[in-house]
Fold this protein.
Amino acid sequence: TYTIEVPKGVSVGDKPKVNFSVNPTDFCAKASAQFTDLSDPIPQVNRWQWTFGDGESSSAQNPSHLFGSTGNYDIKLTAYNNGCPTTLTIPKMVNVKAPIAAFSVDLCSDPFTKIFTDRSQGAITWLWEFGDGETSTQQNPSHTYKTKGTYVVKLTTTNGACDYTTSQTIHVINDKVTLTINDDVVCKNTDVTYEIKGADPLNVFSYNWKPENAPAFLGTTTYKQSYADRGNYRVEVDIMDINKCIVSYNTQVKVISPRPDFTSIQILFTKR
């Protein structure tokens, strides 16, 4: 007979008595809510699972949470004692008040004029700061920058009770880009060099080269190729900048066969 002793091999737990609080319960959207576990210490809770009603969760004992949308939220806490759970849900415990500021911007249509679209929740007034000293109180303004560069755009929305500010960094780009070729008529098996000129490397995210007779690939500012057969060959490159705007450039080369080079030799016949 063999006896095996496993110290603390099995833990048996009773279901905990769950309770919690939140502060504040009614607040503007830019504030965080602090949740506090108030479960009875006996039996001891050794694991927590919070769900905040907005798709987010936490396993901390006393988490804080920033809600991304306005409205009322049901808060649920499941507490565990050695794997034995108890769940408490309090409906509409949290009320997140508008507004929440948000916006998008069209960065690709024009190098200097940008169109801003308000996507806020519950806003009544809008204050735009474009990062160059200019402002607007329109809901969906357009703004023309005088020079290229990097700007931080801020939108502050209010509704009389709360306010909310958000910001985005935008890049105004006006590079004068060209796609050049070292020769547009070449003989077969002669290297042809394609080169992007005028693009600021700090403004470029990628170069996507698309040769007509080869698979597309991500490359650099230059691309070299030779052609074994006669014909016209087109090369295109898509340049994506740091705003995720894409501009396409293309050119083509004519490939010909070398012409035979004959040298005439004068032959004189003499009569003997």
The chain has three domains: 20-97, 103-172, 178-256. The radius of gyration is 34 Å. The domain at 178-256 is CATH 2.60.40.10 (Immunoglobulin-like).
